[in-house]
Amino acid sequence: MPEKVKTDLGFADLQCRKSDVGRISRIAKAAYSFNRRFFGKEIKKPFHIIICYSRKEFDDIWGAETDAWLTGFATKTGTIVSFRDDLIRKYNPRKEATLAGTLRHEINHIFYFQIYGSYEPAWLLEGLTLQPPFEPFTLMENDKKRLKGPLPHLIYSTNGKTFFKQAPFLYSMAFLATRH
Ligand SMILES: [Zn+2]
User: Fold this and answer.
1) Structural domain range at position 126
2) Which one, of 134, 84, 132, lies nearest residue 107 by Cα?
3) What is the CA(73)–ligand 1 centre distance, in A?
4) Which of 50, 71, 74, 77 is the most exposed place for a label (fewest CB within 10 A)?
5) Are 131 and 167 in contact (CB under 8 A)?
6) C-alpha closest to that of 167 among 102, 158, 39, 106
7) Which pTM was predicted?
8) Is there a single domain that holds both residue 161 and residue 94?
9) Ion ligand 1 — residues with CB under 5 Å?
C-alpha cells in the first residue's frame, strides 16, 4: 500500500507513490474546485485519497474481491480509493474513464455525504455525478441492447449491470430534482 505523502491540498491527505504526487495533486485540486463550484460551498472535514497500484491493494481496502469493472469508490468514513490512470484504462469498460473523472465523481459523493449526512437515495447520489460536465453518459453497445427491455424507474442497485441500464434515467431524474 502506498504511504501518506506531503501535499499542499488542505482538503484531503493523499497516499500514492512519491513519483505521482505532483500530477495527482493537480488532478485532485481541479476535481475539488469543480465540486466546490457545483455545490456552491466548501466542505469542512478533510478526507483521504488512496491511489492503488494493483487489484489486490484495492480489494484489501474494499474488504472483499471487487468486480472487474470497479475502479473507484468512496467510503462513509471519507476515504476515496482509486486506481492510477493506467489501471483505470485497463479495467474500466468506459474508454473515456480517467483519474480526473473518477476523482470528480468520488469527491462529489464526499460533498454529498458531508452536506446531507447520507449516501441515500442512490439514484440521486449517482445521478448527480452523471450531469454534464461530470460524466456525460454515453451509451455503449451493450447498454443499447439492455435498454430495449422495460424502462427502469426509481430502482437502483449497486450491481454494475443495473447501474449501466439505469444511468440515463438517473441523470435525468437528478437533473430534474436539482435544477427545477
Ligand atoms: Zn458513484
Assistant:
1) 120-180
2) 134
3) 7
4) 77
5) no
6) 158
7) 0.80
8) no
9) 126
Task: Return the ∠ at Cα 3 (arms to 114 and 134), rounded to 5°.
Answer: 40
Distance 135 CA to ligand 1 centre (A): 11
CA of 1 to the centre of ligand 1 (A): 23
Same domain for 89 and 20, yes or no, is yes
Q: What is the pLDDT of residue 47?
A: 98
> Same domain for 41 and 25?
yes
105 alpha carbon – ligand 1 mean position (Å):
6
